[in-house]
What does this fold into?
Amino acid sequence: MPDLGWSDGLCLSVYHHQRPFQDWEKGFTGKLQASLEFPSNSADHQEPPECAYGCWLSLMSLLKWLGLVFLNMPSSPLWWLWSAQIFLVFTHHPQVEFLCLLAGVCPCRVTAMVLKVFFPSCCSSADSGILIGRWISEQNSVVILAVVHFPFIPVQVKQYLGEVQRVTKVSVSVLGSWSNSKQEKEESLSEFLEDLGTIFCHEPWIQISKEGDSKFWSCSILQKHSKNPQEEEIILVYYDQRKVMLSHLHPPLDTAGQRAEDASKLSAIFGTVARSQVLFMTDRYNEGPIKLTHWQSDGVEASIIVELLKQASVPACMLLTFLLSLLSGICRSRVLKFWPLSFLWSKLSTCEQLGHRLQHLQVISSSKKAQNQNQLMRKANIFVSLLIDVVLGILLMSWLYRKNRIGHLADTLVPVADHVAEELQDLLQWLMGAPAGLKMNRALDQVLGRFFLYHIHLWISYIHLLSPFIEMILWYVGLSACLGLTVALCILSDIIALLTFHIYCFYVYGARLYCLKIYGLSSLWRLFRGKKWNVLRQRVDSCSYDLDQLFIGTLLFTILLFLLPTTALYYLVFTLLRLLVVIVQGLIHLLVDLIDSLPLYSLILRLCRSYRLAAGVKFRVLEQQDGKPLRLLMQINPLSYRGVVQTYRLPTYSCYPRDSWASLCKKLFLGELIYPWKHKGDKQN
Amino acid sequence: MTCAQQPVPGRRWQKVLYERQPFPDNYVDQRFLEELRKNVHARQYRYQAVVFQSGAVVQQLCSVCVFVLTWWYMDAGMLSPQGLFGAALVSSLLGYVLFDAVDGGAGRWASGRTRWADLKSTLVFAAFTYGFSPVLKTLTESISTDTIYAMSALMLLGHLIFFDYGANAAIVSSTLSLNMAIFASVCLASRLPRALHAFVMVTFAMQIFALWPMLQKKLKAQTPRCYVGVTVLFALAALAGLATVSSVGAVLFASLLLAISCLCPYCLIRLQLLKDNIHGPWDEAEIKEDLSRFLM
It folds into this structure.
């Protein structure tokens, strides 16, 4: 980075995504987030304004804070307008006037056109020559891409530019001249430079000259054909060519509808630099007829390993695609689609996860080129997440299979299951007594308790029957961890579901019984009042019942009402147990979803190369001298981490229902079954 | 409005809105009060008729009293379930015959109900009650006896409130009243010592709360003299039964019955004289308090 000699000056950030600034003639109307900091060591400003400024700053920050906290005001441009106008009353500082110029507050200063020259900072030490770049007339701005050095033959330059234009589709042209004189200014050179303007006719013709080691460059504009030559104000904006070329402005503007607006937006500048990538890819040692200065890529040689990998990836991808198509063909075969099997597949989260990963692999290995930045990032994110998943899985596997840990696990599993069953038995015994002093219907209580006890007895005998094989099963199942940590976690979730199957059964019995009672009671309550539910009109109508209907209905109503507390207690206890299991499974699935959906590649990119994901730009005012053009340094505002996650989050299959809490509570109250997996019917909602 | 102050002698005032008249908006002439009517819907009651009509309330009060007394006897073991069941059976058969005999089968023919349907209903009652009686027996075991008494009392009171005494009011709902009575009977039956007791109790409740009022209604419509006799007999029986349990209760109940059948009709007729209800061709002014004024 050449020394441009800036000190911390007025700092303005323009957030591209929050408010596009379309009208650059009047300056930036975008949201200006100005942290007003003026250089205290500037030579040319007076003492009193600084004092006033100090007061102003504290007042301003207080107001800003108040506005942010209480009123949420800064979102309105009026706020900034107002604050800037108040500031004008306090002081007449040249840089403040600049702020107003940008904000469009003080129109008397903006009668003259403002020409913005985007100058690559790598060219600031280049030898004299001519400037080539793109003229964006809508914004009245110039994007300089490179400097062509003397000597050159004009015809060759024009030819070269034509070629570049053809490849990049950017209208690159000669825009002006650049002189970098180490010694005194030479009269003859400046005349020569003006003459160049006649050879490469461009309107306006820009002349930038740097004298010695001076930080302040002189700029001038020649407009020969213009009828009324007016004084144009020039703002020099330095930008880092490499960063701007590589950065990707958010949110992406790929849609066709916005193309018309493109020219007047910041993205026009970013797009111009990014599209003229070909210009920078030329080899450093490739001596052509024209000598250029611009940001220099390292050429093809530097990334030979990357190139080799690129070449090798093509057959690898083809092989992978073939294998995947074979695998998905087997999965889709009809044998696996019969009723009990398909039901089983849809309920096992392992199968879902494997299917999800299979889709990911298909996306990665597809031979289609990614059409835009988003698809590219998606592919990269999937690849990195898959890679990390597999690495974690293999780490887990290496930990599991050392020191016979599988055997220990299997040995502890059966006692744990026994212990759970014993606890359940104790719970049932407690429920069959007088739990918490509640008086329940003794007969029903005994019946339900014995029923559940018998169920536990069945379950324990089943576990003991299975116990000799558990170690073997675990050993083989553990191998699947090499497919990824997420698969291993899903298998864990499924094993939990299988081992707590008795709790699930209890829950279903309890819920069904409770549901029956609730619905029976609600309809019999209507009968009790002499009403009935009209299905056609969806309302409660009065109805005259027969005597026997009334009698039986009331008899059942009485019985159900007095038996409800017993059933409700059993339902409550087993629902709590079930919820515990569902919460554990939900946490496991949350972890799986996190690994599946986290855009790791984007996050790493944001961490290491923050300029690659740009959310906007900010301008920093460099040191200032009267009579010289204003100099700004353009810096890229990186996208926030939250924004990165929001933009590049990978979609996940969600196998748990997305009920709201209210609907969940309603379901629990009515005794409808809650499932950890999604219903087929719920998908439309 | 200046011309409207003094009515023009040539024009007569008309009670219409579609013509412009030279009168102020609130002007009325002397014909206005000619259409005033007083006590248009007020009815002149005769004392005997009112006393006769109050018989329905007396009957229902006595029914509740008899039911509670029966339960009391059964709970105390003074009445065997078999005896009650036999008596109930005999009386319902008698009632069934009487029901058809009173109007000579006209009511049955009008409703189109067959005897087979009656038999089916009876069988359903008996089967369900008998089947559920063990359940009923253990239903409220763990619930406190006082709770059961309170609930039954509440339900019987509700039965008396919602019962259809022949008045045309919104509160009347014979379904709700019958259901409340059944609920109370089930509650009380579950306190009895054995399942058979519960069965007999619920059957008896059905007879006294569902079938007996139907027969009463028919008697009242067909043979009013007979109805009065039956009412008096029923009330005397209930009083006698109550006297065996508690003499104070019997006195109180007797005074209640007397108050309802004699004192209340007398009061009604006396108060009817004070009735002053005006009707006319105007809209009644509704005074609406503007509460928002006070809330400010």
